[in-house]
Amino acid sequence: MFYYIIFSLTVFYIQINYILSDDINCILTDEHRLAVLHAHNKYREKLACGEVTDSSNKTLPGGILYRFIYNKTMEKLSQETANKCQMKHSNDTLYGENLYASSYSMNITDALIAAVDMWWAEKDACPIAANNLNATDAVWQGCGHWIPMAQSQSIQISCGVSNTCGSQDWCATAYNCKQTTLVSCNYFNPSYNGDNQIYTAGNKCTKNEDCSVYKNSVCEPSGLCRSPNKWQLQ
Predict the structure, then answer these.
(1) Which residue among 76, 82, 106, 222 is least packed, with the fewest CB closer than 10 Å?
(2) Distances (CA, A) of 214 to 69, 187, 203
(3) Which CDD domains does the record match to this protein (predicted)?
(4) Would residue 233 count as lying in a domain?
C-alpha cells in the first residue's frame, strides 16, 4: 500500500542580513515561475475582491492588495533552502518563507501548485475575521502559511524545488518513503514595519490613486495594485 504525507512550515521577516550563495543552480524554468506566480495572484485577486472565507465560513472583506512579481535573484535563497531537503527554515533571511514537503517525488509544477493550494487552504481553519485581519498568535497558529501569501503590501516572491531528496527522517519510519520533494517559497514586503495587520478591510482598487504604498503604482482591471519593478515607498 502506498502512503504519502505532507508537511508545511512558515517563518516571516526575521531582520538579519543574508548573503546569497553564488553557486546555487536554480532549476525552475520560466514556465514553472509563471505557474507559481499565477497560483499566488489568483488567490490574491479573490481576497482583494472580497471572495474569500475563513473558518467562520463568512466572507472576508476585500481590500487593497499588490500583485506579486517574481524575483529571480531571490530565487537563489529559495533553491538553496530546497536543496537542503530538510523541513527547516533558513536562519538568515529578510524574507517571509513557506516550506512544503511530500513523501514522494513530484513533478515540479505539480509540487509548486500543491504547495500554494495547501498553504492558502489554511484559511478554512483560521479565525481571521474574528481577529480583525490581524496576525495574532491564534491566526499564526491556524494559518501561518496563509499570512505571507495574503499580506497586502508584499510585492515579490520566489520559489525553489527539490524532488530528489531521497528518504527523510520525518517519513522514513512511518511511511517508508524512498524519495521526497521539498518546496520553499520566499516573500518580500519592503514596507513591513512589524505591524500585525495582514491587510486593511475595504475595497479593491479602482484607480491608480488607490495604490498609494509604492510610487508610480497602477491599479489593474483585476483589482490588484501593481508596483513598478524598481519600487520606491511613497
Answers:
(1) 222
(2) 14, 17, 18
(3) CAP_euk
(4) no
